[in-house]
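Provenance

Sequences were taken from public entries as deposited. Structures were produced by running a predictor on each sequence independently, with no templates supplied. The record for GDP-L-fucose synthase from Benzoatithermus flavus is shown for reference.
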Amino acid sequence: MADGKRFDLAGKRVFVAGHRGMVGAALLRRLSREPVALVTASRDELDLTRQADVEAWMAAQRPQVVIVAAAKVGGILANDTWPVEFLEQNLLIELNLIRSAFRVGVEKLLFLGSSCIYPKHSPQPIKEDYLLTGPLEPTNEWYALAKIAGIKLCQAYRKQHGAEFISAMPTNLYGPGDNFDLATSHVVPALVRKMHEAKREGAASVAVWGTGSPRREFLHVDDLADACVFLLERWSGSEPVNVGCGEDVTIRELAELVRAVVGYQGELVFDPTKPDGTPRKLLDVSRLAALGWRPRIGLREGLAGTYAWFLANAAAARGLAGAAA
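Predicted structure for GDP-L-fucose synthase:
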Protein backbone atom coordinates (compact mmCIF):
# COMPACT_ATOMS: atom_id res chain seq x y z
CA MET A 1 0.00 0.00 0.00
CA ALA A 2 0.99 3.65 -0.23
CA ASP A 3 3.28 4.73 2.59
CA GLY A 4 1.88 8.25 2.87
CA LYS A 5 5.12 9.92 1.79
CA ARG A 6 4.93 12.22 -1.22
CA PHE A 7 7.67 11.92 -3.83
CA ASP A 8 8.83 15.35 -4.97
CA LEU A 9 9.35 15.57 -8.72
CA ALA A 10 10.66 19.12 -8.60
CA GLY A 11 14.10 19.47 -10.11
CA LYS A 12 14.33 15.81 -11.14
CA ARG A 13 15.69 14.51 -14.45
CA VAL A 14 12.76 12.52 -15.86
CA PHE A 15 13.33 10.06 -18.69
CA VAL A 16 10.19 9.24 -20.69
CA ALA A 17 11.01 6.08 -22.65
CA GLY A 18 8.83 5.96 -25.75
CA HIS A 19 8.21 9.71 -25.96
CA ARG A 20 7.16 9.61 -29.63
CA GLY A 21 4.28 7.23 -29.03
CA MET A 22 0.77 8.35 -28.11
CA VAL A 23 1.32 7.75 -24.39
CA GLY A 24 4.84 9.15 -24.33
CA ALA A 25 3.80 12.32 -26.13
CA ALA A 26 0.96 12.82 -23.65
CA LEU A 27 3.42 12.36 -20.79
CA LEU A 28 5.66 15.06 -22.25
CA ARG A 29 2.68 17.42 -22.51
CA ARG A 30 1.75 16.79 -18.90
CA LEU A 31 5.29 16.87 -17.49
CA SER A 32 6.02 20.13 -19.31
CA ARG A 33 3.82 21.75 -16.64
CA GLU A 34 6.05 20.41 -13.87
CA PRO A 35 9.41 21.85 -12.73
CA VAL A 36 11.37 18.90 -14.10
CA ALA A 37 14.16 18.37 -16.66
CA LEU A 38 12.79 16.11 -19.38
CA VAL A 39 15.11 13.54 -20.96
CA THR A 40 14.22 11.68 -24.16
CA ALA A 41 15.91 9.50 -26.77
CA SER A 42 14.62 8.75 -30.26
CA ARG A 43 14.95 5.32 -31.86
CA ASP A 44 17.82 6.68 -33.94
CA GLU A 45 19.63 7.65 -30.76
CA LEU A 46 18.85 4.58 -28.66
CA ASP A 47 17.61 1.09 -29.53
CA LEU A 48 15.85 -0.03 -26.36
CA THR A 49 16.11 -3.69 -27.35
CA ARG A 50 19.93 -3.58 -27.17
CA GLN A 51 21.13 -4.17 -23.62
CA ALA A 52 24.60 -2.65 -23.90
CA ASP A 53 23.28 0.48 -25.61
CA VAL A 54 20.62 1.06 -22.95
CA GLU A 55 23.11 0.54 -20.11
CA ALA A 56 25.59 2.97 -21.65
CA TRP A 57 22.94 5.61 -22.34
CA MET A 58 21.47 5.40 -18.84
CA ALA A 59 24.92 5.62 -17.27
CA ALA A 60 25.68 8.74 -19.30
CA GLN A 61 22.32 10.50 -18.81
CA ARG A 62 21.70 9.55 -15.15
CA PRO A 63 17.94 10.13 -15.00
CA GLN A 64 16.43 10.26 -11.51
CA VAL A 65 12.94 9.21 -12.62
CA VAL A 66 12.05 6.79 -15.42
CA ILE A 67 8.65 6.18 -17.02
CA VAL A 68 8.55 3.04 -19.16
CA ALA A 69 6.03 3.99 -21.84
CA ALA A 70 7.98 2.36 -24.67
CA ALA A 71 6.40 -0.80 -26.08
CA LYS A 72 5.43 -2.58 -29.24
CA VAL A 73 1.66 -2.20 -29.33
CA GLY A 74 -1.23 -2.99 -31.66
CA GLY A 75 -4.73 -4.36 -31.98
CA ILE A 76 -6.06 -7.90 -32.34
CA LEU A 77 -4.84 -8.33 -35.92
CA ALA A 78 -1.32 -7.14 -35.16
CA ASN A 79 -1.01 -9.31 -32.04
CA ASP A 80 -2.22 -12.36 -33.91
CA THR A 81 0.09 -11.72 -36.88
CA TRP A 82 3.36 -10.95 -35.05
CA PRO A 83 3.38 -12.92 -31.76
CA VAL A 84 7.18 -13.23 -31.71
CA GLU A 85 7.72 -9.47 -32.00
CA PHE A 86 5.07 -8.66 -29.40
CA LEU A 87 6.60 -11.02 -26.84
CA GLU A 88 10.28 -10.64 -27.66
CA GLN A 89 10.56 -6.88 -28.20
CA ASN A 90 8.51 -5.98 -25.14
CA LEU A 91 10.51 -8.33 -22.92
CA LEU A 92 13.76 -6.82 -24.15
CA ILE A 93 12.61 -3.22 -23.75
CA GLU A 94 11.36 -3.58 -20.20
CA LEU A 95 14.24 -5.77 -19.00
CA ASN A 96 16.87 -3.40 -20.35
CA LEU A 97 15.21 -0.29 -18.94
CA ILE A 98 14.30 -1.66 -15.51
CA ARG A 99 17.67 -3.33 -14.92
CA SER A 100 19.60 -0.28 -16.11
CA ALA A 101 17.46 2.01 -13.96
CA PHE A 102 18.40 0.02 -10.89
CA ARG A 103 22.08 -0.05 -11.80
CA VAL A 104 22.34 3.74 -12.19
CA GLY A 105 20.39 4.44 -9.00
CA VAL A 106 17.11 5.80 -10.41
CA GLU A 107 15.05 7.13 -7.52
CA LYS A 108 11.65 6.12 -8.90
CA LEU A 109 10.43 4.14 -11.90
CA LEU A 110 6.90 3.80 -13.25
CA PHE A 111 6.22 0.82 -15.51
CA LEU A 112 3.11 1.00 -17.68
CA GLY A 113 1.36 -2.29 -18.19
CA SER A 114 -2.03 -2.88 -19.80
CA SER A 115 -5.47 -4.10 -18.81
CA CYS A 116 -4.99 -7.04 -21.19
CA ILE A 117 -2.81 -8.68 -18.53
CA TYR A 118 -5.90 -9.91 -16.71
CA PRO A 119 -7.59 -13.27 -17.34
CA LYS A 120 -10.07 -13.42 -20.21
CA HIS A 121 -12.97 -14.28 -17.92
CA SER A 122 -12.13 -12.14 -14.89
CA PRO A 123 -14.98 -11.13 -12.61
CA GLN A 124 -16.07 -7.57 -13.41
CA PRO A 125 -14.96 -4.97 -12.57
CA ILE A 126 -11.38 -6.28 -12.59
CA LYS A 127 -9.42 -5.83 -9.37
CA GLU A 128 -5.64 -5.71 -9.37
CA ASP A 129 -5.42 -8.96 -7.40
CA TYR A 130 -7.16 -10.89 -10.20
CA LEU A 131 -3.82 -10.99 -12.02
CA LEU A 132 -2.71 -14.58 -12.81
CA THR A 133 -5.96 -16.14 -11.61
CA GLY A 134 -6.98 -17.58 -15.00
CA PRO A 135 -6.13 -18.02 -18.71
CA LEU A 136 -5.37 -14.96 -20.84
CA GLU A 137 -7.23 -13.81 -23.94
CA PRO A 138 -5.53 -15.83 -26.74
CA THR A 139 -5.56 -12.97 -29.27
CA ASN A 140 -3.16 -10.85 -27.21
CA GLU A 141 -1.50 -13.26 -24.80
CA TRP A 142 1.98 -12.56 -26.18
CA TYR A 143 1.78 -8.87 -25.31
CA ALA A 144 0.08 -9.65 -22.01
CA LEU A 145 2.78 -12.12 -20.96
CA ALA A 146 5.48 -9.53 -21.62
CA LYS A 147 3.65 -6.90 -19.59
CA ILE A 148 3.11 -9.34 -16.71
CA ALA A 149 6.84 -10.03 -16.72
CA GLY A 150 7.52 -6.28 -16.45
CA ILE A 151 5.21 -5.95 -13.45
CA LYS A 152 6.84 -8.90 -11.75
CA LEU A 153 10.32 -7.57 -12.46
CA CYS A 154 9.44 -4.29 -10.75
CA GLN A 155 8.08 -6.25 -7.79
CA ALA A 156 11.22 -8.41 -7.69
CA TYR A 157 13.54 -5.38 -7.58
CA ARG A 158 11.41 -3.89 -4.81
CA LYS A 159 11.42 -7.16 -2.82
CA GLN A 160 15.11 -7.95 -3.22
CA HIS A 161 16.65 -4.49 -3.34
CA GLY A 162 14.03 -2.08 -1.99
CA ALA A 163 13.84 -0.28 -5.33
CA GLU A 164 11.08 2.30 -5.64
CA PHE A 165 9.64 0.75 -8.80
CA ILE A 166 5.85 0.95 -9.29
CA SER A 167 3.48 -0.14 -12.04
CA ALA A 168 0.20 1.13 -13.45
CA MET A 169 -2.35 -0.75 -15.58
CA PRO A 170 -4.09 1.56 -18.07
CA THR A 171 -7.38 0.57 -19.62
CA ASN A 172 -7.98 0.99 -23.39
CA LEU A 173 -6.46 4.31 -24.45
CA TYR A 174 -7.18 6.73 -27.28
CA GLY A 175 -6.46 10.33 -28.18
CA PRO A 176 -4.09 12.60 -30.10
CA GLY A 177 -1.16 10.81 -31.69
CA ASP A 178 -2.94 7.47 -31.99
CA ASN A 179 -2.09 4.94 -34.69
CA PHE A 180 -4.64 5.01 -37.52
CA ASP A 181 -3.11 2.22 -39.62
CA LEU A 182 -5.92 -0.32 -40.04
CA ALA A 183 -3.49 -3.24 -39.97
CA THR A 184 -2.10 -2.39 -36.53
CA SER A 185 -4.51 0.03 -34.82
CA HIS A 186 -6.84 -0.39 -31.88
CA VAL A 187 -10.60 -0.05 -32.12
CA VAL A 188 -11.07 3.73 -31.65
CA PRO A 189 -8.62 4.94 -34.33
CA ALA A 190 -9.74 2.15 -36.66
CA LEU A 191 -13.37 3.25 -36.38
CA VAL A 192 -12.46 6.92 -36.77
CA ARG A 193 -10.52 6.24 -39.95
CA LYS A 194 -13.09 3.85 -41.42
CA MET A 195 -15.99 6.23 -40.87
CA HIS A 196 -14.06 9.27 -42.06
CA GLU A 197 -13.16 7.51 -45.30
CA ALA A 198 -16.71 6.16 -45.72
CA LYS A 199 -18.08 9.67 -45.24
CA ARG A 200 -15.61 11.11 -47.74
CA GLU A 201 -16.35 8.42 -50.33
CA GLY A 202 -20.13 8.34 -49.76
CA ALA A 203 -20.07 4.63 -48.79
CA ALA A 204 -23.40 3.15 -47.75
CA SER A 205 -21.97 1.13 -44.87
CA VAL A 206 -18.96 0.53 -42.65
CA ALA A 207 -17.87 -2.94 -41.51
CA VAL A 208 -17.13 -3.33 -37.80
CA TRP A 209 -15.28 -6.36 -36.50
CA GLY A 210 -17.21 -8.77 -34.26
CA THR A 211 -20.73 -8.79 -32.94
CA GLY A 212 -20.60 -5.38 -31.28
CA SER A 213 -21.53 -6.91 -27.93
CA PRO A 214 -18.19 -6.88 -26.04
CA ARG A 215 -17.91 -4.12 -23.48
CA ARG A 216 -14.83 -1.93 -23.20
CA GLU A 217 -13.65 0.95 -21.04
CA PHE A 218 -11.87 3.86 -22.74
CA LEU A 219 -9.59 6.47 -21.19
CA HIS A 220 -8.23 9.56 -22.91
CA VAL A 221 -4.45 9.47 -23.07
CA ASP A 222 -4.12 12.92 -21.45
CA ASP A 223 -6.02 11.58 -18.45
CA LEU A 224 -3.58 8.68 -18.26
CA ALA A 225 -0.62 11.07 -18.34
CA ASP A 226 -2.12 13.04 -15.47
CA ALA A 227 -2.66 9.82 -13.51
CA CYS A 228 0.98 8.84 -14.08
CA VAL A 229 2.26 12.08 -12.57
CA PHE A 230 -0.17 11.61 -9.69
CA LEU A 231 1.07 8.07 -9.03
CA LEU A 232 4.72 9.08 -9.19
CA GLU A 233 4.03 11.61 -6.46
CA ARG A 234 1.51 9.68 -4.37
CA TRP A 235 1.95 5.91 -4.77
CA SER A 236 4.62 3.72 -3.22
CA GLY A 237 3.65 0.07 -3.26
CA SER A 238 4.44 -3.22 -4.93
CA GLU A 239 0.87 -3.75 -6.09
CA PRO A 240 -0.05 -2.48 -9.56
CA VAL A 241 -2.65 0.30 -9.81
CA ASN A 242 -5.47 0.21 -12.36
CA VAL A 243 -5.99 3.42 -14.30
CA GLY A 244 -9.36 3.90 -15.96
CA CYS A 245 -12.65 5.74 -15.75
CA GLY A 246 -14.68 2.95 -14.15
CA GLU A 247 -17.33 2.95 -16.91
CA ASP A 248 -17.66 0.91 -20.09
CA VAL A 249 -19.66 0.81 -23.33
CA THR A 250 -20.37 -1.87 -25.91
CA ILE A 251 -18.41 -1.82 -29.14
CA ARG A 252 -21.72 -1.09 -30.86
CA GLU A 253 -22.27 1.95 -28.64
CA LEU A 254 -18.70 3.08 -29.29
CA ALA A 255 -19.18 2.74 -33.05
CA GLU A 256 -22.37 4.77 -32.89
CA LEU A 257 -20.59 7.49 -30.91
CA VAL A 258 -17.77 7.62 -33.44
CA ARG A 259 -20.30 7.75 -36.30
CA ALA A 260 -22.01 10.73 -34.65
CA VAL A 261 -18.71 12.54 -34.00
CA VAL A 262 -17.46 11.99 -37.55
CA GLY A 263 -20.84 12.85 -39.05
CA TYR A 264 -21.15 9.66 -41.06
CA GLN A 265 -24.72 8.86 -42.08
CA GLY A 266 -24.33 5.28 -43.35
CA GLU A 267 -25.06 1.89 -41.83
CA LEU A 268 -22.89 -0.04 -39.39
CA VAL A 269 -22.49 -3.69 -40.41
CA PHE A 270 -21.09 -5.98 -37.72
CA ASP A 271 -19.09 -8.99 -38.87
CA PRO A 272 -19.51 -11.93 -36.45
CA THR A 273 -16.86 -13.94 -38.31
CA LYS A 274 -14.22 -11.61 -36.87
CA PRO A 275 -13.01 -12.11 -33.26
CA ASP A 276 -14.71 -10.27 -30.42
CA GLY A 277 -11.85 -10.73 -27.97
CA THR A 278 -12.56 -10.63 -24.25
CA PRO A 279 -16.32 -10.34 -23.55
CA ARG A 280 -15.85 -7.53 -21.04
CA LYS A 281 -12.90 -5.59 -19.67
CA LEU A 282 -13.82 -3.04 -17.02
CA LEU A 283 -11.24 -2.09 -14.44
CA ASP A 284 -11.91 -1.64 -10.76
CA VAL A 285 -10.34 1.78 -10.17
CA SER A 286 -11.16 2.04 -6.47
CA ARG A 287 -7.48 1.94 -5.44
CA LEU A 288 -6.65 5.01 -7.54
CA ALA A 289 -9.90 6.77 -6.64
CA ALA A 290 -9.15 6.28 -2.94
CA LEU A 291 -5.87 8.14 -3.47
CA GLY A 292 -7.86 11.08 -4.85
CA TRP A 293 -7.51 10.89 -8.65
CA ARG A 294 -10.38 11.10 -11.16
CA PRO A 295 -10.40 11.40 -14.98
CA ARG A 296 -11.56 14.69 -16.48
CA ILE A 297 -12.29 13.95 -20.16
CA GLY A 298 -15.59 12.30 -21.08
CA LEU A 299 -15.76 9.79 -23.93
CA ARG A 300 -17.73 11.89 -26.41
CA GLU A 301 -15.58 14.96 -25.71
CA GLY A 302 -12.44 12.86 -26.08
CA LEU A 303 -13.59 11.29 -29.34
CA ALA A 304 -14.38 14.71 -30.77
CA GLY A 305 -10.90 15.92 -29.87
CA THR A 306 -9.34 12.80 -31.36
CA TYR A 307 -11.19 13.30 -34.65
CA ALA A 308 -10.16 16.94 -34.73
CA TRP A 309 -6.54 15.90 -34.24
CA PHE A 310 -6.95 13.29 -36.97
CA LEU A 311 -8.20 15.90 -39.43
CA ALA A 312 -5.44 18.34 -38.56
CA ASN A 313 -2.63 15.78 -38.66
CA ALA A 314 -3.68 13.27 -41.29
CA ALA A 315 -0.59 13.79 -43.43
CA ALA A 316 1.66 12.95 -40.49
CA ALA A 317 -0.51 10.29 -38.85
CA ARG A 318 1.01 6.84 -39.05
CA GLY A 319 -0.40 4.87 -41.97
CA LEU A 320 -2.62 7.71 -43.08
CA ALA A 321 -0.84 9.97 -45.57
CA GLY A 322 -3.41 11.98 -47.49
CA ALA A 323 -6.49 10.33 -46.01
CA ALA A 324 -8.14 13.61 -45.03
CA ALA A 325 -7.73 15.14 -48.46
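Confidence is low (pLDDT under 50) at residues 318-325.
DSSP finds ten helices and 13 strands in the chain.
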